[in-house]
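#struct-pred
JK: can someone run the complex with flavin-adenine dinucleotide? inputs below
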Amino acid sequence: MSTVNYDVVVLGGGAGGVAAAIRAAQLKGRVAIVEDKFLGGLCMNRGCVPFSHMLTASHILDSLNLAKEMGIECSQVSTDFSALMKRQDDLSTFMRQGVHGLLNKNGITLITGRGKLAGPGKIESKGEILSAKKIILATGGDWAKPSFPNSDLPEVINSDYLLTMKRLPQRCLLFGEGPRVIEIAQFLRLLGSKAWVSTPEAALLGNENKTIRSRLVKALQAQGIPILTGIEILSLRKKKENLEVSLKAKDKEEVIYVDVLMTLQRRAMLPGLGLETVGLDEKREFIEVNEHMQTSAVDVYAVGDLAAPAANHYSHLASAGGIVAAQNAMGLKTALDRRSTARVVFTRPQVACVGLTSKEAREAGYEVVEGAAPLSMNPLGMILNQNEGMIEVVAEKRYGEILGVHLIGEGVAEMVGIGILAINMEATLEELSRTTFPHPTLSESLAEAARDALGRAIYLP
Ligand SMILES: Cc1cc2nc3c(=O)[nH]c(=O)nc-3n(C[C@H](O)[C@H](O)[C@H](O)COP(=O)(O)OP(=O)(O)OC[C@H]3O[C@@H](n4cnc5c(N)ncnc54)[C@H](O)[C@@H]3O)c2cc1C
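RT: done, structure tokens with the ligand placed:
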């Protein structure tokens, strides 16, 4: 076995690992990254990118309803699923090549193959030992086996299925928690399938502000997507033509017949990483890290889905963690501020929230003030039929510091960046209310929501 010495070795080339490797190299580290399959990881190859592409296509289709209201007739609209798949495969390939180029430009050694820890300061891959002053683990997660009976039937699928299928399932029950379940249900519905959202949670997106989640539910139901909450799957039975699913909600039982049942539960994948060789426990749900992304093992950092509960599986959090880990590994002292991680659902209308909900703020001991501005009263909102759109701002009363921004409406995933910046910069309601946003834009309602919290909304009745 030969040994190569590095300052930093990153295990896993997804959103977290690539950001970590590049940042460590920028800080003049000698860096290697070990990737088993595809650079860019889940996000670029089987997650954010292909699904954002699919959702965007379905939202374009949905826009034709508004177009019609505006007098634009689009007759004979058809969808070619193979063209959609080809375009997104091309995009993922192009982006992977881009990542490859970035690694080269930054002088990072790419090792293609599976790697694992082989003791303090050592990673083993393909029979070679890479010796590292610091190690950053970024190997992500994997699909969790559903806990209901008969979950190994071939009709029980996950989102990977949609990337290889030849035609859409006509009837699909989605079961689980979090944004992906809702996004994929809407995609299927907008492309003409019947889709149900079912969740074991008492409410959809139960941790978000009530106004936001109830408006999302209303919008989804209006699109013909039934929302079933507090659900337990009692049994699955393969019938000749379809799958019989028995569900229980409270004390009521219901049977639904579908082509497929999709679950999207993922968890950090710890077994096989050699964690025991550095004293870490592979039986945990995920690797625990502090705000510097340090694990309890000396000189070992962990980032991304590997180091987070499923509710925090976001690409932007993985890459932000990767940058923090790399900086600390290279001798800087930086911390990840999780307060400003946006929680986004890429449906139509989009949901984007950052910071504390009003309930969380009260529980944290703040005296809370809130302001809201419905997008149905915003000029562009009216043009775009934003009937369910809403902007909510949560702040503490004494200084007016903004603690949370909660949005539902067209394109609010872009707008939430203003909220992230406000929270990062400890901005106040007064400062947000004085910000002049361009007209006509939906973001004007951010200033109006801040004015509402201050008791001086201009355009609200
Ligand atoms: C359908 C779907 C849609 C999503 N959409 C979004 C979205 O819109 N926005 C968002 O923020 N997040 C989204 N996510 C979540 C996002 O994809 C993940 O949070 C993100 O990819 C996590 O990045 P990571 O670097 O931690 O792990 P990953 O991206 O999973 O990367 C880990 C990498 O490590 C490699 N690896 C694993 N084990 C080893 C080993 N032993 N040796 C070498 N290499 C190894 C893997 O091959 C992989 O490339 C989505 C997820 C899914 C499933």
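RT: quick notes.
The pocket of flavin-adenine dinucleotide is lined by residues 11-17, 34-38, 41-43, 47-48, 51-52, 114-116, 138-140, 159, 180, 273, 304-306, 313-316, 318, 346 (CB under 6 Å).
The chain has a mean pLDDT of 96.
JK: thanks, will look after standup
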